[in-house]
């Protein structure tokens, strides 16, 4: 009966080193995937511990007789929320009529403990149906048959590049943090990262932004802010 020769000790050591190297690389890949997944979730899932525009547009507007999903926010250039855009009818808010509910007729409550956001409006289902059919209804409701090209919406700002002092893009708007009275106080921005998704985030005062319509769409400028300022802001926010 023949027996195979035992491999030299040197070969065994090299095999062990190779296994350890592969295990280390696998651990690094697992850590990278975990960190990337967390970063992607942070980029996609709204932060409900703060009253943000993204969190607001992932909830429903409740009113007498029903509720409708909030699609967007119409805003002024100084950050005031002027109207809440909802989807009435359709299937789960898809293919429904867009109706703007005047922000004056709506109230927002935000529970800091559990992040719950409740948006209510003083309108009825009959008024909603009437305006969806093109009839005259409450002054607080307006059917949006076609969005104006020059009207400013939150969706115009979400993901928009911010152009700094030298005109170059220095950050991307991830979200807007709102005050209790419905005004944008801060722009939550992200510095450069993988497809602008995995960079660090920080906050800059909305008042430092200048919103300008160039004829084709909205541009966002922060002419007093540089790339270095954004790096410092995001680093400070990350430290907090």
TrEMBL record:
SUPFAM superfamilies: PRC-barrel domain. Signal peptide: none annotated. Residues 1-30 are annotated as: Disordered. Coiled coil: none annotated. It comes from the Bacteria. Residues 150-196 form the PRC-barrel domain. It holds the Pfam family PRC. InterPro entries: PRC-brl_dom, PRC_barrel-like_sf. Residues 11-28 have a biased composition (Basic and acidic residues). This is PRC-barrel domain-containing protein. It comes from Glycocaulis albus. The lineage of its organism: Bacteria, Pseudomonadati, Pseudomonadota, Alphaproteobacteria, Maricaulales.
């Amino acid at each position: 009966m023949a027996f195979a020769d035992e491999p030299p000790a040197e070969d065994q050591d090299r095999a062990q080193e190779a296994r350890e190297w592969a295990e280390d690389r696998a651990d690094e890949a697992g850590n990278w995937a975990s960190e990337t997944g967390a970063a992607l979730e942070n980029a996609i899932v709204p932060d409900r511990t703060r009253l943000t525009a993204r969190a607001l547009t992932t909830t429903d507007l409740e009113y007498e007789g029903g509720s409708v999903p909030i699609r967007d926010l119409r805003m002024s250039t100084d950050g005031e929320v002027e109207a809440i855009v909802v989807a009435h009818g359709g299937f789960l808010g898809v293919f429904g009529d867009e109706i703007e509910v005047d922000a004056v007729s709506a109230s927002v409550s935000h529970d800091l403990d559990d992040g719950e956001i409740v948006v209510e409006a003083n309108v009825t289902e009959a008024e909603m149906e009437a305006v969806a059919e093109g009839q005259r209804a409450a002054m607080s409701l307006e059917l949006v048959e076609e969005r104006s090209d020059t009207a400013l919406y939150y969706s115009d700002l979400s993901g928009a590049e911010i152009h700094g002092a030298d005109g170059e893009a220095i950050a991307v708007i991830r979200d807007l943090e709102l005050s209790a009275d419905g005004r944008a106080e801060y722009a939550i921005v992200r510095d450069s990262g993988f497809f602008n998704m995995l960079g660090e985030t920080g906050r800059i005062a909305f008042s430092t932004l200048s919103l300008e319509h160039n004829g084709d769409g909205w541009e966002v400028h922060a002419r007093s802010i540089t790339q270095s300022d954004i790096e410092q802001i995001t680093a400070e926010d990350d430290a907090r």
